[in-house]
């Protein structure tokens, strides 16, 4: 048996806090690392010390995905110790990205904004290129087994929220680390991302997310430890709730489009009037995902008006 200790860390994001987990058994594993920066690093260090653990005691770090609030602590931790990092293989291109890759991604986001009818100058999340200097990284894939505290955990690939999301599932006990794939406190976004290197079209993250939810609904998970908020054990009813919320959003979009053709940005300002500036991307991503879903159901048609894609209901 392993002991699982939640380490709650503060973030500047709307979710408030992010969870890392300390798993203590035959070996010591840290699942996720919190945000970048000294403040979060110090908080993590203090909370580990409260459990009599120092960074040098940690045998491995496993990341549930590479969003910054989960993976951001890696560089400062590796400044102190050369601990091995495990992460899904889809993170490889991000971790090894060149300036050219970064520019290609930024131009994808500018085009996506324009196509939505938003203003890239006001609404794009400004980022600057930073070379990742992680060491000792090993890549995980679907079906891999990894020892955590002496227990065998299976890697279940669950893309959607990001392209690097994994669950770590102990078949014997049902204990599962879920990252942001399934969180009880809020419905997670399936973020629009640039095309995976080697492909030319963007991913369909909400469709991926729904396939991943359907996949894990067939697994007998027991206690689920998410990336934010409390652990839970009723993953099936939570999945049902999330699917229902998606249907409700689809219905809202259909209602809005019943009054005429609209861009994703126009739908966004009706559905999420309080989103402003760089937060707009969250709404655009959410709505584009649901539009992808409505398109697979042959309910929508689209046409270009200049650089903007306008959507309308198929039967109008
Ligand atoms: Zn995330």
UniProtKB/TrEMBL annotation:
<dbReference type="InterPro" id="IPR001279">
    <property type="entry name" value="Metallo-B-lactamas"/>
</dbReference>
<dbReference type="Pfam" id="PF00753">
    <property type="entry name" value="Lactamase_B"/>
</dbReference>
<dbReference type="InterPro" id="IPR050662">
    <property type="entry name" value="Sec-metab_biosynth-thioest"/>
</dbReference>
<feature type="domain" description="Metallo-beta-lactamase">
    <location>
        <begin position="17"/>
        <end position="228"/>
    </location>
</feature>
<protein>
    <submittedName>
        <fullName>Glyoxylase-like metal-dependent hydrolase (Beta-lactamase superfamily II)</fullName>
    </submittedName>
</protein>
<dbReference type="InterPro" id="IPR036866">
    <property type="entry name" value="RibonucZ/Hydroxyglut_hydro"/>
</dbReference>
């Amino acid at each position: 048996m392993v002991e699982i200790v939640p380490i709650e860390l503060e973030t500047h994001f709307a979710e408030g806090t992010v969870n890392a987990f300390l798993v203590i058994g035959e070996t010591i594993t840290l699942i996720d690392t919190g945000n970048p920066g000294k403040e979060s690093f110090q908080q993590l260090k203090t909370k580990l010390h409260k459990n009599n653990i120092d960074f040098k005691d940690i045998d491995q770090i496993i990341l549930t995905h590479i969003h910054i609030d989960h993976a951001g602590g890696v560089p400062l931790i590796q400044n102190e110790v050369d601990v091995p990092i495990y992460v899904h293989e889809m993170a490889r291109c991000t971790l090894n990205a060149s300036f050219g890759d970064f520019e290609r991604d930024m131009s994808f986001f500018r085009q996506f904004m324009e196509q939505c009818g938003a203003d890239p100058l006001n609404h794009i999340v400004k980022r600057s290129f930073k070379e990742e200097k992680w060491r000792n990284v090993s890549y995980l894939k679907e079906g891999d087994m990894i020892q955590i505290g002496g227990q065998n955990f299976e890697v279940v690939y669950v893309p959607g929220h990001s392209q690097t999301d994994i669950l770590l599932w102990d078949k014997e006990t049902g204990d599962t680390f879920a990252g942001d794939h399934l969180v009880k406190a809020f419905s997670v976004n399936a973020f629009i991302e640039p095309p995976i290197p080697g492909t030319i079209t963007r991913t369909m993250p909400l469709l991926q997310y729904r396939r991943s939810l359907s996949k894990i609904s067939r697994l007998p998970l027991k206690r689920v430890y998410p990336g934010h908020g409390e652990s839970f054990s009723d993953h099936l009813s939570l999945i049902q709730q999330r699917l229902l919320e998606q249907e409700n959003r689809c219905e809202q979009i259909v209602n809005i489009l019943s009054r005429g053709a609209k861009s994703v940005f126009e739908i966004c300002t009706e559905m999420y009037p309080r989103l402003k500036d760089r937060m707009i991307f969250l709404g655009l991503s959410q709505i584009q995902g649901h539009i992808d879903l409505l398109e697979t159901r042959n309910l929508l048609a689209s046409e270009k008006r200049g650089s903007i894609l306008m959507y309308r209901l198929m039967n109008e």
